[in-house]
Amino acid sequence: METFVIGLSIASILFMVALGLAIIYGTMSVINLAHGEMVMIGAYTTVLATKHLGINIYLCLPLAFLVTATFGLIIERTVVRRLYGRLLDTLLATWGIALILQQLIRIHFGLGLFGVEIDGLGSDLQNVPVPAELQQAIRVFGANIPVYRAFVFVAALALGAITWLLIYKTRFGSQLRAVSVARNTAAACGINDKRVNMLAFAYGSGLAGIAGVLVSGFKTVSPDMGTPYVVDAFLVVVAGGVGHLLGTFASAGILGEVQSFVATWANDVYGRTVLFAVVIFILLFKPQGLFVTKSR
Amino acid sequence: MTYRTASIIAYIAFFAVVLALPLVLNSFWTNRVAIYLVYSICAIGISMSWGYAGILSLGQGLFFGMGAYMLAMSLTLAVPENNPVPQLMLLNMEPNAVRDLCCVTTGSFLWIPFRSVAVGMIAGIVVPCILAAGIGYVMFKRRTTGVYVSIITLAFALIGQLLIINNQPLTGGFNGLADLALLEIGGFEFDPYGPSAYYAVAFTLIAVILLARYMLTGRIGQVLKAIREDEARARYLGYDVENFKLFIFCVSAGVAGLAGMLFTLTSEFATPSLMATSLSISMVIWAATGGRASLLGACIGALIVNFVGSLASESATFQPVWPIILGLLFVVVVLFMPNGIAGIFKAFIERNGRTERLGETRPSGKTERSDKSERVQTELTAREA
């Protein structure tokens, strides 16, 4: 039962990171390797905000969303926009951006070179204080469940629901879906596809930022924390089926649980190894992913 | 001057510089440059599979690391204290285990063949090839293409790295294999800081370039380019696309394995960090900077990036900024120089060639081979066969 709950919280984080990546990859065919750095920036936003502004972790959620969405917007405007249609090149360019962002945190946004150091940045490990009410554990069916893990799970569900509403119930969502199915046709019908791209990229990055806030509550924060997330999340996206919200949800759940159970049964390393093996297996035998979007 | 003459001159000049360098370098820099040349060999492997056939493998580090480990295992056993059982196994073994390589820890029998250095050297190429053949067979027969190939190879490299770190008693874990003996062939010892190891690397590099060029300018190269441009069309023309891709993927892995062995020879260690994602992606960037579709370009790209990188890491001011410059380099190369340094060189030669011809009274019959005409050429050759 405890293993199951840990699996759920791993899955929740994976889901939030993967959701943003799925929107970006699904709509624009851009592989954003800097997505993990959005998680990292979200986590650092939390560190800085709790240290300097004294606000708690709940308020950090919208704040981190705004900060990372802005970063996403800048990245889209400056680099990604020039690379549409060149899938493998987006992968390389965004890896470069990831390197830059990591190093910017390490050198205090360049201020470190002039001897100015901001508390909370740099290459050291950081910790985020978690409010007392989230540190307890509740007993459900005779198992101890940390409230924080439950909180992460609820947050992921809420974000999933909001994203679902956004994509399937709003005007922007229908434009987004139109662009991802047939970009040129959508543009010909008067949809500003460049604007849709830009907003989708920003929204996807913002989701990763929120995931970063939640991660910072139970993991130490460091400049290179993001890279494992982007790889795992990308595996979740392709295993679940590109452009399929439910597929991302299901595959995040499955992969999170697989990792958690194998990790408890053997160790962490085997947990990840089995995770990769499962994904490779899925990709080889169902290259479209578990759920296939039907399109003409 | 045509592009063909210019590139032949460039190759010869490059070989001459590489061979002459140890005459002017001290032992520290001889060793450093030898390592950069090893990285060049990696970049050639990438150029072969990515530049010519369009297969972007992000797991090249796996093959590189395996090559390094194969030779490092042999060289570990060549140290007298490590006989009959390496120190690292003695430190980690069960208290009452038999002190023999067959059964000191689980899986230690895998080390037995490596008592012979020759086996280690052959395995350094053959094992990555076989592994690549296995991965490639499953991938290409399932018709996995493009970015999925990249992701699958990336995942394999991560698995490899995790398994090596995790099996501490067998592989030395996170610290890898260090304290190696020097490689000795027929009584001749290769000193990593002397010209001997340097020339071993340099001659291998030249041989790899010449062989790869011989192979890729021939029919195989043409078919691979056709596959890169349009896989379905190549298939309809009757080519066995999967086998061609499998072949170049294995060759590329073998080249990476060879580079790995030379890395062990020059740096005297092998660690799991050789299989890290960041190194695999760096290799791709070296090739991209120099020009992915040019063997010499990829080679020079690796040299320049690593050389500037190590210069930067020696100065206290530039050391923290270097990763940012490297990141910007990724972005700039991808955005503005898709064909890298070699592409700029080619454009320059062709522009000069054109002005020369305009000045001549009688234009020569030779036409330029632009990218487009090259593609048409490819299709024509493909159709002829």
From TrEMBL, chain A:
Keyword terms of this UniProt record: Amino-acid transport, Cell membrane, Membrane, Transmembrane, Transmembrane helix, Transport
GO molecular function: transmembrane transporter activity
InterPro entries (UniProt xref): ABC_transp_permease (IPR001851), ABC_UrtB_bac (IPR017779), BCAA_transport_permease (IPR052157)
Keyword 4Fe-4S: no
One BP annotation, GO: amino acid transport
Signal peptide (residue range): none
TM region positions: 12-35, 55-75, 87-105, 147-167, 200-221, 233-257, 269-285
CDD domains assigned to the protein according to its UniProt record, in alphabetical order: TM_PBP1_LivH_like
Membrane topology: Multi-pass membrane protein
Pfam families: BPD_transp_2
Organism superkingdom: Bacteria
Record's subcellular location: Cell membrane
CC per GO annotation: plasma membrane
Family to which the UniProt record says this protein belongs: Belongs to the binding-protein-dependent transport system permease family. LivHM subfamily.
Name recorded for this polypeptide: Urea transport system permease protein
Biological source species: Aminobacter aganoensis
Taxonomic lineage: Bacteria, Pseudomonadati, Pseudomonadota, Alphaproteobacteria, Hyphomicrobiales
UniProtKB/TrEMBL annotation, chain B:
InterPro entries: ABC_transp_permease, ABC_transptr_urea_perm_UrtC, LivM-like
Bilayer-spanning residue ranges: 7-29, 35-55, 62-80, 117-140, 147-165, 197-216, 243-263, 269-288, 295-312, 324-349
Pfam families xrefs: BPD_transp_2 (PF02653)
Molecular-function annotations in GO: branched-chain amino acid transmembrane transporter activity
Keyword annotations: Cell membrane, Membrane, Transmembrane, Transmembrane helix
GO cellular component, one term: plasma membrane
NCBIfam families hit by this protein: urea_trans_UrtC (TIGR03408)
Name of protein: Urea transport system permease protein
